[in-house]
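Team,

Forwarding the record for the chain on the shared tracking sheet. I've put the sequence and predicted structure together so nobody has to dig through attachments.
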Amino acid sequence: MRLRVIDFGTVPALRSQAVYHGLAACIGPDSDPVLSLASPATPYVCVGLHQDIAQEVDRAYCAEHGLPIIRREVGGGAVYLDGGQLFTHFIYPRRKAPEFAVNLYPRFIEPVVRTYRDFGVNAVYRPVNDIQVNGRKIGGTGAASIGEATVMVGSFMFDFDTATMAKCLKVPSEKFRDKLRQTLDDYMTTLAKELPAPPARGALLARFLTHCAEVLGVTPEYDRPTAAEDAAIARAETRLADPDWTDVQARKLVALGVKVAANTTLTEAARKAPGGLVRVTLLAQDGRVRDLVLGGDFTCLPPEGIDRIAAALRGVALEPGALAAAAAAAMATGAIELPGVPPEDLAAAILAAVAD
């Protein structure tokens, strides 16, 4: 099977996200899979599909320092991105990709792991979707369904600015921010940290494509975007820059808040699951879910599945068994995947928001 390799090189910040959104919009059932590559010319903050920016990002700092905030159609957490990373985007027709996320992550992470090892970096896959070197993270990945495509995004970490990352995130105090920066320094690693000198971009890509061929059973061929793909990327840039898209989670919370009435409580909570942080805003009434918004830095396939789960939980008793059973039923009926976030963790997160 042919793998079209489209190397966009260094591009503006917005385009570094728009390229895979636009390419995915052009994928049909019989399309060749695509691997797109890009690095941003200028830094920015990228937030996950289900995150509430007000909870995760220091917007004042970003505005003061000219850092755009771009929401992607892929789950996961908020991250500071700059030219120190080489983004990789696998874009496959759904029927040509592994069916379940549990199979998707290890398959598309393996070529990255092998490439790191070729250059003397002892990388290993760590479920659900991380890559580690001797216990330190050297990159995460994310999966999404966009149009008719299955998308797997990742990066090669040539370098990473942990100090700026710590300044971009929302924290309760400056003391906590100092601790966060130190934690990021301790827990994250890069090619610059692991090697006397990082490999050249071309040498790394040559090894990467060799391993893509071996692991994925494809024939990589360099290509250029078609006119239709260029147009779709331009449309994706417009959509990703739209403030309504950037603040989509905030609009959900506003809609929830206006429903508060007598005998109801509106509360929030967060709970860490193996697959990521789950944030809950709960509108409760008479011991049942009247409404709720679920968000966080997890992955959900399809992306709208998390809202379907929330809708299915309306009217359910605020009891562990009832909530977990309703969430499990919604996930099964809708073929919704939440890697590393089982129904029991969703139930626990919701119950953590129950007012005393």
